[in-house]
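Dear colleague,

Following up on Tuesday's group meeting, I ran the structure prediction for the two-component complex that the binding team flagged. I've pasted the input sequences exactly as they went in, so you can double-check that nothing got truncated or mislabelled along the way. The structure tokens for the whole assembly follow below. Feel free to forward this to whoever is handling the docking comparison.

Inputs:
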Amino acid sequence: MIAKTPSPPYFAVIFTSLRTEIEENYQEMATWMVQLAEEQEGYLGHESAREEIGITVSYWKDLESIRKWKTHSDHLLAQKQGKEKWYSAYKTRIAFVEKDYGFEK
Amino acid sequence: MIAKTPSPPYFAVIFTSLRTEIEENYQEMATWMVQLAEEQEGYLGHESAREEIGITVSYWKDLESIRKWKTHSDHLLAQKQGKEKWYSAYKTRIAFVEKDYGFEK
């Protein structure tokens, strides 16, 4: 689903990743991280798709809520396992959403 | 591939879309738009994946280059056909990338 974010301004975390072939516990952790993110203060929504690369964009009210989520203990464990097992490379970009517009049939 | 963007700051255009079932000319136009975007002044790279939703993030030097690309005549035609045929909904978000960090094995 396209995330139903409020009117800008808000923040986006663009997480782009390449997976290894290791499946161990990956889906369970990904599902758990989405559930946990949704409970966090300042979480506004997320969008995700994977083909050759994976792109997950999560939306946040402010930088403080992003910082808290980044350093959440369960999320830190997921990041550690991500580097060890599931990802061969990733890039995280923190961005300030100034403007949005859309279209719906 | 994860886009090899320069150090921030730069801009991101996050384009999230839902497709219709109409395939007519879609792949050709998508390929052509990527080629054309790559030739534009201020283009820094892009990332794309589609599952339930499609996410394409393109990266740009400044807002002026985004504005020029948005109003490029061939791109305007693609946008028009996109609304008429290929997309049932989309959202475009213009964002200022303040910070990035990554990991590579």
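DSSP finds three helices and four strands in chain B.

Cheers,
M.
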